[in-house]
Amino acid sequence: VTETADVDELVNGNWMSQGTTDAMSVLVDDEVLFPMVQVGSYVSRWITVKNPSHHPVTVKLILNSEEIIDDCRGPDDIFPNFSSGNLVIDEVISAAKYGFSVPGSAVTEAYVHPYDYATLGPIHFYPSKRCGWNGSALIRNNLTGVESIPLRGIGGLSSLALLERSEHVQSISFDLKMHNLLSFSLSYSLLHMKDMVSACSQPLVKEIYAKNTGDLPLEVKTMRVSGRECGLDGFKIHDCKGFALDPGESIKLQISYQTDFSAAKVHRDLELALASGIFLIPMKASVPYDVLCNCKKFMFWAQPRQCEPPVSDIRMIYAKPLTRKYLNI
């Protein structure tokens, strides 16, 4: 059973009286530093102890329940706050309590041979806020009595934003508009067939910036469109490879859409695969009905065809044979 206590001067005095020397220490480190961890998840660390004497030493880990929480910043979201889009979390793992804790399966006692080492723990750090957390653990032993080791950790936030022209975007839209190209007459358009075909087949391109607006580094392992790596159904992610962003850093993403004119609207999702889950942002491509119909026609007319036979040959093929009866000869 793990002991947790509010340690006062009397308890400290009682434990210290059991020690045989104050010139030694069983602690290897001066403090236990936990790396910044996402609010709502936890990280673990161990405490290494040593026996600097030529007699066996028994050590016991006791966690001080008193904690100081300070230096808080911004919202206290338990789950990642992605400022645009949605994060589908792969798995949520919780520790027993917020702050510092020792799980029931932890090693809290050890018999240390002379000049040997032992490891106690683990100690979990599970922040509920974007704050600094300060606590302590006590190592009770029959050599120095009781020694205190500070515990320090920081709760951080993962946050990813997608920006278009410095504006946050909740979705990405591609709109194919060519009203000016479709307003001229048929005879005029035939004279400019190449321009029309080029306009209809031109992909729409968006430049989107992915920015790390949180406290923790982010790594995007892969990029997909609705489960298909790099592209699907006309949507394409250019320079499609993973990337890493430190807090405040951004990277340009180029995404395009090229319609095959089979549908007026196409909906898909941009997926950025992170270590903690998949970041989703909806994408929509729209082609007006008149553009859809006219471009289909132009694209059909522009398709290569077999050479038609000359006029004289057509007459020979399709005309009925002329007989004396019909010629009145």
Automatic annotation (TrEMBL):
It comes from the Eukaryota. Residues 212-276 form the TMEM131L fifth Ig-like domain. Keywords: Membrane, Transmembrane. InterPro entries: TMEM131-like, TMEM131L_Ig_5. GO terms for cellular component: membrane. This is Transmembrane protein 131-like protein. It comes from Trifolium medium.
